[in-house]
Design a protein that fits this description.
With 209 residues, the chain is mostly helical. The chain is built from seven helices and four strands, in the order ββαααααααββ. The strands form two sheets. It has a two-stranded antiparallel sheet.
């Protein structure tokens, strides 16, 4: 822990109770060191409020690029691809929401792994990340429910998502923050406390703007 972070035993000096440091810290230290020097748990109320604010600031970057990517799905009336995209994006959203320090590169690498897994040429991934495994599981579960989604179409959708994360870049979490804001602004997502009750539910899209 950074020695400059002042942790207090009560709320007289530090006004925010920090679950990661088991004490009270100032709003300044909370804002300056969260997710950097402080390993914030995903359920910290200050982290969640700050995260949504940051996501909203950059949401349009991802969403505008997203509109361009999904336009062909609408033009071709490819409802199956759209349904899979929504389900897949929400699987990714739930992971990042539970792991707020997820970086752009971790997401891109997981997506690259999944693209290879969906390839006609079988590839063995000995060191696939937990995110890659979760996204593969989400894809397989969707395919069980919708057998018409073949590997080729699923791969094409994942490639589109990967292209979005490669295009929208600012810092090590710029694409992730923009993606989260895109989902929170344009999908109807459950509150964090309700999410465990519907672990496999896809978000309901509001409208593409």
């Amino acid at each position: 822990m950074n020695a400059s972070i002042q942790v207090h035993a009560n709320g007289k000096k530090g006004r925010r109770q920090c679950p990661a440091l088991n004490g009270w810290i100032s709003a300044k230290d909370c804002g300056e060191y969260r997710l950097r020097e402080i390993r914030c748990p995903a359920d910290c109320r200050y982290l969640d409020a700050h995260g949504r604010y940051q996501h909203a600031r950059v949401a349009d970057d991802f969403h505008l690029a997203w509109i361009g990517k999904v336009a062909p799905y609408y033009q071709q009336r490819d409802q199956l691809a759209l349904d899979f995209l929504m389900d897949f994006e929400f699987a990714l959203y739930r992971h990042v929401r539970a792991h707020p320090v997820t970086t752009d590169e971790q997401v891109r690498e997981a997506l690259r792994v999944l693209v290879r897994q969906l390839s006609p040429i079988q590839v063995f991934e000995a060191m696939a990340s937990s995110l890659a495994k979760q996204l593969l599981q989400a894809t397989q579960e969707f395919q069980k429910q919708q057998p018409r989604l073949d590997a080729e179409k699923a791969q094409r959708v994942v490639e589109d998502v990967l292209a979005l994360f490669a295009k929208v870049r600012a810092d090590e979490r710029g694409s992730v923050s923009s993606f989260m804001g895109h989902v929170e602004a344009h999908f109807k997502v459950p509150a964090k406390e309700d999410e465990t009750q519907i672990p496999n539910a896809a978000p309901q899209i509001i409208t593409p703007r």
